[in-house]
C-alpha cells in the first residue's frame, strides 16, 4: 500500500484539469469599437498569468453581411452585439480581477459588480448558431420590406420614389413599383440602386 503512494508521488499522478462544466459564459462590456482589442488583450493576459486552464473561448460575435459599394458587392463583418465580448471562464477572484482590470473593459454584465451572473447556455448556443449562419449565408447589410417606400438613386428612374413589391435576397434585387405618367410600373433593381427614404 505504501509503495502505491510512492509511485503516485514519483510523477505518475494524472494531470489535474478543470472540468468543462466549471466554466460558464459571461458578458463583458467593452468600449465601443474596441471589442477585438479587448479579445486580444484578454488572450495575452491569460497567457502571461498562465491561467489558460481557467478560461475557454473569448468571442466577439460577428456575422458577415453583403454590402454594395459603387455597384460592387463586398462582404463585410458586422458585430452582433456591439460593445460586448463573451468570455467562457471559471469565475474566481483571480479570473474576475484579470478580466475586470483589462484595458478598455468597463465590467461584467448581469448580477452584482463583484459577482456577475453567467449567461444561460441556450443563449450562448443561439449566438453561436447565428454566427455560423452568418458565415454560411451572408445577409445583405440593408434589409428591405414589402410595402416600404424607397428612392431610386441609379438608372433611368433616378430620384423617383417607389413602393417595394418584392425582395429577392438571393439575387440582391428588389421589385419596385414606380408611378410614371399616372401609371404604376414595376421595375427590378439591384440593392445598390435604391435607398431607404
UniProtKB/TrEMBL annotation:
Which one GO biological process term can you cite for this protein? DNA-templated transcription elongation
Q: Which residues form the KOW domain?
A: 143-170
Q: Which Pfam families match?
A: KOW, NusG
Which PROSITE patterns did the record assign? NUSG
Decide whether keyword Transcription regulation is in the record: yes
Residues covered by the NusG-like N-terminal domain: 22-131
**What are the record keywords, sorted?**
Transcription, Transcription antitermination, Transcription regulation, Transcription termination
Signal peptide annotation: none
Q: Which SMART domains match?
A: KOW, NGN
Annotated Gene Ontology cellular components are: cytosol
NCBIfam families attached here? nusG (TIGR00922)
Family label: Belongs to the NusG family.
Q: What does this protein do?
A: Participates in transcription elongation, termination and antitermination.
Per its record, how is this protein called by name?
Answer: Transcription termination/antitermination protein NusG
Originating species: Undibacterium terreum
Give the encoding gene's name: nusG
